[in-house]
Amino acid sequence: MNKICSQKEVKEILERERDRSDRTNKEFSIVIFEATISKNYRFFLLDLCSVLIRRIRCYDYIGWIDKKRIVVIMPDTSHRGAQKLADDFYKMAPCDRSLINSFIYTYPLNWINIEAISQTMSHKKVPALSAAQPPDSSSTYEKLLPLLPACMPLWKKTFDFLVSLFLLIFLSPVLIAIGLYIKIVSPGPVLFKQKRIGYMGNTFYCFKFRTMNLNADTNVHMNHFKNLIHSNTSMNKLDKEDMRIIPFGLFLRKSGLDELPQLINVLKGQMSLIGPRPCIPYEAREYIVWQRQRFNSMPGLTGLWQVNGKNRTTFNDMIRFDITYARKLSFLLDIKILLKTLPAIISQVIEGNKNERTKNARIA
Q1: How far apart are CA 11 and CA 147, in angstroms?
Q2: Which pLDDT does position 134 carry in this prediction?
């Protein structure tokens, strides 16, 4: 007989099924049952669990999300199969259908729909994700949040808010000086904002100091990034040969000073101090399913990849660092990455200058 798994066991099973689905390219589905009664809901759900246990397969899992919700995880199951389980349950359940709601999600369709996100970015009409998507849900990831293996803990939210607020105040003279310089040397706005994909596929505007001329062509970067993914070469930037960059803009980019305005994103809760680099929608379209696990954690100003070679690594190396960070998330790990960030930036600037001098010497 199937046992009722704890919340911790449910998260472990879910993470394992996601890994298996990524390897085999087979989808799996979950059905969430939510009690709508005002009291005694745990005993009510326990009764319903006995009905579900008689219906589910021996390799399905049933467990708790919280006191008011249970979930059935169904490996190798399409949306249609999960819908049949829900329909059969309502026929078998000894209670009024209005006393319980059900929500169906299929991985990867309903979890992070990059195609839908990308169409939103290009102002195209977005098709419905699935007939099972709850009509009243404002965001898929909000419904799935209790099941995610890398939910952002309270200590991280508090740490991000306090440190980003302090840095914005402490570095305000630097921010003002950079802003004035950009205004003098290049016409246009000081800040550059761009839509990025963050935690669980949520989109947001990412802020940076503008280091390129106004209305610079983005197709150059798009083609370069596609080449990095498919050729699996080191993650070198185009900066050295990029004529779109404003005077002194290359130094701002090498030193990471152009990314200081992202402290605003951290303060707003859209980013974290530590996490994967937030990607552009056209980048995410190139990801295969397993690579989308980098969206399991909040994007950050710096991260495990940034302090472990960065431009000397390949695209797949970057993704693996991001997934490793999401799975090993801890306060100690964040502190270690934060302490390594400044030395990594200094090393990157020195290495970049050295390579530039070597290149110029060869030309001479």
Answers
A1: 6
A2: 39
Q: Which residues does 151 contact at the CB level (< 8 Å), separation at least 6?
A: 145
What is this structure's pTM?
A: 0.75
For the chain, the residue count is 364
- Per-residue pLDDT tens for 142-200? 566 666 655 678 899 999 999 999 999 999 999 999 999 999 998 889 999 999 988 87
Say whether domain 4-147 belongs to CATH 3.40.190.10. Answer: no
Q: What six digits make up the tokens of 262? A: 């992202």
Question: Distance between CA 86 and CA 346 in Å, rounded?
Answer: 57
Q: Note whether 281 and 203 are within 8 A (CB).
A: yes
- Please answer whether residues 63 and 11 qualify as being in contact, where contact means their C-beta atoms are separated by less than 8 angstroms: no
SS3 letters across the chain: CCCEECHHHHHHHHHHHHHHHHHHCCCEEEEEEEECCCCCHHHHHHHHHHHHHHHCCCCCEEEEEECCEEEEEECCCCHHHHHHHHHHHHHHCCCCHHHEEEEEEEECCCCCCHHHHHHHHCCCCCCCCCCCCCCCCCCHHHHHHHHCCCCCCHHHHHHHHHHHHHHHHHCHHHHHHHHHHHHHHCCCCCEEEEEEECHHHCEEEEEEECCECCCCCCHHHHHHHHHHHHHCCECCCCHHHCCCECCCHHHHHHHCHHHCCHHHHHHCCCCEEECCCCECHHHHCCCCHHHHHHHHCCCEEECCCCCCCHHHCEHHHHHHHHHHHHHCCCHHHHHHHHHHHHHHHHHHHHHHHHHHHHHHHHHC
Ranges of each domain in the chain? 4-147, 154-363
**pLDDT tens digits, one per residue of 207-251:** 999 998 877 666 777 787 778 887 777 777 665 556 778 888 888
Counting as low any pLDDT under 70, the low residues of the chain are 1-2, 112-151, 216-218, 237-242, 352-364
